[in-house]
Every structure is written in C-alpha cells, then in structure tokens.
Amino acid sequence: MSAFATTPADSGKLLVLTPGLGAVSTTFMAGVEAVRRGLAAPIGSLSQMQTIRIGPRSEGRNPFIRDLVDLAPLESIEFGAWDVFPDNAYEAAVRAKVLRAEHLEGVKDYLSTIKPMPAAFEQKYVKRLDGPNVKKAANKFELAELLRADIRNRMAEAGASRAVMVWCGSTEVYLEPAPCHDTIDAFRRGMKENDDAISPSQLYAYAAIMEGVPYANGAPNLSADVPALEQLALENGVPIAGKDFKTGQTLMKTILAPGMKARMLGINGWFSTNILGNRDGEILDDEASFRAKEVTKSAVLDTMLQPEIYPELYGNLYHKVRINYYPPRGDEKEGWDNIDIFGWMGYAMQIKVDFLCRDSILAAPIVLDLALFLDLASRSGRSGIQEWLSFYFKGPHVGAGHVQEHDLFIQHFRLKNTLRVIAGHEPVTHLSENYEPHHDTP
Ligand SMILES: NC(=O)c1ccc[n+]([C@@H]2O[C@H](COP(=O)([O-])OP(=O)(O)OC[C@H]3O[C@@H](n4cnc5c(N)ncnc54)[C@H](O)[C@@H]3O)[C@@H](O)[C@H]2O)c1
Question: Could you read off the pLDDT of 277-288 as tens digits, one per residue?
Fold first, then answer.
C-alpha cells in the first residue's frame, strides 16, 4: 500500500485557533504548555501516548502513534482564540475553575500572553451570554471576512506555516439546515442578507475553510455540517470534522452499550441525568441550546443498538437524557445512568453508573488530538469530512447517505487503520493471525 505523500510537519509552526476561550480551550492550552515544560503528562491523548501495531502480530512492531505518523511536535504549536470576553487565557482559566491554582501558576506567564480576538457573536444564538469583545460589521459576510483577516494576521504574528481551528465556543441554539446552506452561492448570499439560519459558528467554519484551515466543531450545534460548507471544504482541499466532543456520559454510553449488544443482552430503559455548574451548564439550561445537545446525545443509542434489526432486544428502549444546571458543582459534573437490561428468558437486571467526571479534563486531549490529526490529514492531501475522526465526537459528521458510527471500539479501529494507511502500512484486520504459523508447528 502506498503512503499518502505527507508534507513534513517540521516545516513550520502550527497555529491552533479556538473560537471560544473558556473551560475546554484554556484547559487544553494550559495542559499543552505544562507538558512542554515537563510539568504534566498528556494523559488521555492518543496522539501523545498510544501505541499502534504495524504488520503481523508475530513481528512485535508497536510504535507510538506519534512515531508512526508525522505529527506536529507540541513545541511547534502556537495558540490563537476569539471570545466575547476580553480576559486572557490565564484569567479565563481562573474563572473556569477547572485547573487548580498550583497547576495554573506554572504556566501563568504563558497563558497571560494569549489574548482573545473580538468575536463574531450574536446573542440570538447563545441566549445566556453577553460580552463586550465583539466585532461589528455591515453584515455576516463582512464578519466572515474579518475572521479571515484575523486568521491571516494571527498566523503571521505567530510565524505559523499552517493552522487548524477547533470550535470551543458555547453551544448555539438548535438550527435546522435551510436553503441558504444548500450551495456555496446560496450561503454567500445568505451571509450578505443576514439570513437568520447562519449562526456565528458557521461564519468561523466558512472563514477557516476559505483560508485552507481544517475545522472541527466541538459543540453540538449546526456548523460545517451543511452541504455548502462540505462542498467548499472539498473544493478548497480542507479537512473538516465534528461534532460535539465525546466526553462524560456519552463516552460511557458508547463504551457500555456496545458491550451489552455484543452479548445480545436486551435494554429497555436508559435514563441519564447530569448536574453541572459551569458556564456550559448555564447555557444548556436554555431550552434552545439544550435541544442541540439533546439531539446529538439521543441519537447515540439508536444507531449503536439497531432496534430495527433487534426489535426483541432494543425495540422498546426508553431513552431519556437530562442536563441540570447546578452552580455549586462548577466543572465537576456528576452524571447518573440507570440502565434497565434483561437477559436469558427476559430476566431483568439493572446497572447504575455514577460518573464523577471532569468534562474539560476529558475534552482537552480531544482538542489536541483533533488539531494534530486534522493537520496531518491536511498535509496528507485529505479533504472534506474526516469520518475516521468519529472517535472524538458524540454526533459524528458523516457524508450524505452515510450512517454515523457511535461504537467507540469500531471508531477506534477505524481511526488506527486510517493512521496506518496514512503512514503507508496495511490496515490490520485481526484475521492474519489465523494464517500465522503456530509456535508448536514444526
Ligand atoms: N466540556 C466538555 O467536555 C464538552 C464536551 C462536549 C462539548 N463541549 C462543548 O464545547 C464548548 C465549550 O465548552 P466549555 O465548557 O469550554 O464552555 P465555556 O462556556 O467555558 O466556554 C465557551 C466560550 O465560548 C465563548 N463564545 C461563545 N460564543 C462565541 C463566539 N461566537 N465567538 C467566540 N467565542 C464565543 C464564550 O464566551 C465562552 O467563553 C461548548 O459548546 C460545549 O457544549 C464541551
């Protein structure tokens, strides 16, 4: 199998741009800098910590992913961000209360230098948010042009040869694709006419794709997942991925449900509720923003369990997801799952999960991996929707007519095989073992 011609990563700096300088993005930036300073380990990041088997098992070749594919080194990363609040990354991290003072102190000098550019923002799309650091322009098209100029300026300032963008902004209200999303022309016209169906996150996505910058959406709202932007990404040779980082309760769901299904155990109820008290929780307390989240969270079980094929196991599954804003907890969310399952002869059993997770701690390595893998994809000549990055998302962005894959293990398998192919190796099927000689064969 021939390798994709990958332009070397060490040819310049990689600028990682985040619309949104809140809990997730500051935790990500603080962690990268802490790792660079030898103060922390990049736990949770496949690109930094995981190995990957190459060739038959008998050869024992298991390099680290970072040694197999040509990823941008952490030392080459520079950051840029936009936010509706003017606080620098240190101040924003203190406010987010994810990382403790003792961990922030070690990187305070660096984080203080990251100042957010004025945001393309409209309160109509995030009702519970209002801040002063906002761009003004005649229409949405002009706003997108300003974002494009920001990307170019920040790249020049940072001395970066490449950039990637990961949306870490608040969850916008639920929007359905509209006629202005059908074609690139319609989208440009829609921006000029200030079409309500075009939200700020779509302006960032458009700006990124126009500048040749890969784009990933970490939130559940509609963003680059519309035909106009998918087409633009293909035409401009830009990889895109999304949406909604797979952390916390949904991560657990996509670990547990495939296990039940593999054992052909039935499930007739799955009740999930959360309490969280960070700004994300406050925004999700608004029904319209929650609706966007509810849609990505709810689809997960249906596509994994295939009730249409297994009606007697999953046909009557009642799935309920609640998110409750509860300020005392801050970012230290608690998620409860009650799973009603049944086995042999229909006998009922229950599973209770109480996950005291830290959302941003789970999300930060996802931002890092997405940035590095999207940059790799771009240098390897890949463009359009990168379904192999579904591993990182609650609502994987897939091409029209494709079914989303939610099973974490299938997603993981696909991710690794794509990395093998990018590196010029055969995908691993786990079948080859059958043909290897047994040790006791003469
Ligand atoms: N924390 C997680 O594990 C997790 C998991 C899945 C998805 N997400 C999503 O990631 C996003 C970020 O989460 P968070 O916990 O960091 O939230 P946060 O509220 O701490 O940070 C979001 C930041 O985005 C800013 N913002 C909003 N609209 C903007 C715009 N148009 N331009 C620039 N900045 C804008 C806000 O001012 C805020 O500072 C949310 O949409 C959340 O739903 C988070």
Answer: 887 788 877 887
